[in-house]
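In line with agreed milestones, the collection of sequences with tokenised folds has grown. One record among many is set out beneath this paragraph:
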Amino acid sequence: MLRKKILNWLIALSIVTLVGCGEDSSSNGDSNKAPIVDAGNDVSTILNQSVTIVGTVTSESPISSYRWEKGDDTLGTETSITYTPTELGVDTLTFIATDAEGKSGRDEVEVRVKEKGTIDLPSTSKLMYKTDSELIKNSVHNLSFGYYQDKGSQRWYISPINFHNKVDVYSLMAFKNNRNGWGTVGKDVASFNLSNEMVSIDNIEDNHNHTYYDIGWGEVNTDPIIQSDIEKIRNSTVSVKWWFFQASNTSWYIINKNGDTYKFSSKRKNGVLNYNWIKIDMGDAKPNFFIEDGIKKVKFKSSSSNINPSEPNWDSGFYHHEKDSNGKYMKGYWYRGYAPKRFYDYSKGEYSELAKCEKTGVEALGNCTWYAKSRARELGGTIPYSTWGDAKSFDEYARNQGYTVDKNPVVGDIAQHKVGEFGHVAVVEKVNNNGTIVISESSYAPCSTSWNFLHRIRTVKISEFENYIHVK
């Protein structure tokens, strides 16, 4: 199953480096050519609203028949058709013209169906797809393949991503007849370090007979370049340049660590199959890469999305993880691992008393690490329940678990600084346009008159915090 998936994807992936056009029909030796058919430009319409599509044909012989098809259904037998979509999405219609000699030409047109009041969808491959960006930004995507070069940046290689086992290495070979060759350089020789986005290649034995299995062509080939590819990549560790994922619309996308995102596309025009990578406009959204259950994933978040900071839902399981005998969440309980108000002492095998200031007896009202992780989850973040230690160690734990940590705040991020003995963390609630952010926070300081609080919201400069941990 994995081999088949790799085969299907590598055929498409060939276009990352080579944008190719290949004839998809061949001449039968007769003097007259097949009709040249044009189904027109792709169009957009509204659900249940009819659209008229007009096809054109150029032919050296008289045309004996026209036909419009959608899948296995015939929709019309004239050069034009009136089409009424009944479902949202993209419908592909095929226009076929057959001449008196029985030669046929065909072309496809896409009908993009939207709801009333939504934005018109672009129809040319050089434009950016609004719907793709929305689809991508609203989902978590599993990364399937890593694409990388040798240290001399001379050749391209690809490997399927596997967190636990070693995987095969394939190199980009010749492109012909609408298909790219992918030569097997080595089997079970590549290991991914998904946290730092590197791939390490073991020693690969020489292949002096230059015979290899081409997974793109599905056949055994011979080419001296395969030995050169082995020599360039073996016993090396290189960075992954691009990652690939398949979205819920079954389309494939390519993304780098900067968030540049492209969609793989193909369109048949006048008998020629054109491949292309279409750049997707992600706006101000930035990618958050992370590792979950041994799978490297990505989710986009808008850096300027503004929400109205709200009072946390203190009764939810985000903040209270222990339930009483009636199944209700226990108020005032802070889960172990967050310097809690009431916590389980493993050394004693029992719960501790409430945390208080020894001098004054004032009870501790809050805790920044407990609150930050809980609030981030409430805003849609995915964070492990295991402890990340004191606030000052959050960035280290986050990086080790594959989270992106940088200086650019995004709504829902955990903001961190390392001032003082333990540091401090808060949650980004809003990003302003003047270099400030709105944060919410909690504090564990029972002996302080100003920093002993359960919850507060304030506006601070972005520079007040050292790191911003993107927790999806």
